[in-house]
Amino acid sequence: xxxxxxxxxxxxxxxxxxxxxxxxxxxxxxxxxxxxxxxxxxxxxxxxxxxxxxxxxxxxxxxxxxxxxxxxxxxxxxxxxxxxxxxxxxxxxxxxxxxxxxxxxxxxxxxxxxxxxxxxxxxxxxxxxxxxxxxx
Length: 136
Description:
The protein is α+β, with helices and mostly antiparallel strands. Helices cover 48% and strands 20% of the residues. It is built from four helices and four strands; from the N terminus they run H-H-E-E-E-H-E-H. Helix 3 (71-97) links the parallel strand 3 (58-62) and strand 4. Helix 3 (71-97) packs parallel to helix 4. The longest helix has 27 residues, at 71-97. The termini are far apart. The model has no long low-confidence stretch (mean pLDDT 89).
């Protein structure tokens, strides 16, 4: 029972190892130009082979300063995207990729010029993740 709870907590967590921080990785992600779009989120993705079993899917989130001058609003949007990903990654990515030797790097880019609520962001992110698993 305790082991099942730990497993569930791990699946719904968002650890530092899941963040895409490498400038080189982000540039290669944008260079490939593979993307899916559902308003207000555009998702750039790049499939890679796992080097070792501990490799995880990694994500980065971008909200343009050009559209939102105040950092408070940009950070709020990033938190909403991160939370929507954290809640839905297991259903779409982890279950589909657990058997394969692939991982995916993702960049979620917020394209709208106005701030949307969590429900709309989550709906768009789910649609993007569905498209992504279909292209696998």
